[in-house]
């Protein structure tokens, strides 16, 4: 399994806590815009392994490479989806990072947009519970 590397500059500025959608990852300190917060890591799967495994924690980084983020050490798996997220995903040489799109204040939940495919399969059937959808 790949372990997170030194790019995780704000790893100590976040903490897993209860959120509206179960558990979530929250800022404990101010995080500036464009900060690498945490890496989404896990076992690397081939397409065959991916298809056998299935589930919510699979992250495709290219056409034939998928990260299985289901292991508990992968704290980034607690980051919830939002339709108006404060973070986005950056994939650098096959590694997946959660990067802030704007300044995040202490207490704010870390979120990114999971993308259309995931949304349609896992979120839409029960309705989206992100902050911006609950407001409507
Ligand atoms: Zn939403």
Write up what this structure looks like.
A three-stranded antiparallel β-sheet has the order 3-9-8, with no helix packed on it. A three-stranded antiparallel β-sheet has the order 4-6-5. A hairpin with a 2-residue loop joins strand 1 and strand 2. Helix content is 15%, strand content 33%. The chain has three helices and ten strands, in the order E-E-E-E-H-E-E-E-E-E-E-H-H. The protein has a domain of 85 residues: Beta-clip-like, CATH 2.170.270. It is globular and about 40 Å long. The N and C termini lie far apart (41 Å). The chain is an alpha+beta fold and 136 residues long. The site of zinc ion has 5 residues, from helix 3.
Concise account of the structure shown:
The protein has 136 residues and is α+β, with helices and mostly antiparallel strands. It has a domain of 85 residues: Beta-clip-like (Beta Complex).
Core attributes:
single chain, binds zinc ion, 136 residues, Beta-clip-like, 3-stranded antiparallel sheet, alpha+beta
Main sheet: strands, sense, barrel: 3 strands, antiparallel
Provide mean pLDDT, rounded: 92
Distance between the ends: 41 Å
Structural class: alpha+beta
CATH topology of the domain at 11-40 and 70-124: Beta-clip-like
SSE string = EEEEHEEEEEEHH
* CATH architecture term of the domain at 11-40 and 70-124: Beta Complex
How large a portion of the residues is in β-strands, by DSSP E? 25-35%
Rg calculated over all Cα atoms: 14 Å
